[in-house]
Amino acid sequence: MPHGSVDAKKVTLYLSNVKALKEKTLPLRNPSLTMEKTITFPVELQPEQYLILKPEEDVCKVYSANGFPLEEVKSEGEISIIKRGNNKVAFGCDTSQGLSQIAKVKLSLLEE
Questions:
Q1: pLDDT of 15 higher than 80
Q2: Which residues neighbour 73 within 8 Å (Cβ) at sequence distance 6 or greater?
C-alpha cells in the first residue's frame, strides 16, 4: 500500500482523483502514475468520470460526474515510497487513436 516515511513519521498518499476531462469527448484508458514505481488503473473513464484510490481500501472506485459509484477497479503495481524533498510524479495513459490523453490528477498527502 502507498505508505512511506519522512523523518520517522508515517505519510499516506491518497489519489484524490484522476478525472477524464470533457475537453474531448473521448475516453481515457488505463491511467497511471509513476514516481519510482508505476501504478496503473485498468479502466476506461468517460469524460467527467473520476477514479479515487484510498490506501486503506484494496480497490479504487470509479464515480460518475455526479458522484455516484459506478465500479471498483483493482490497481496494478504500487505507489512508490514518498521521500523527503521533491518527488516527481508523471501521469500516463493509453495513447491509441480515439482516446483522450487529457486528465486532471489530484494527490493528497496525510502525515500522521
A1: no
A2: 41, 42, 43, 51, 59, 60, 61, 62
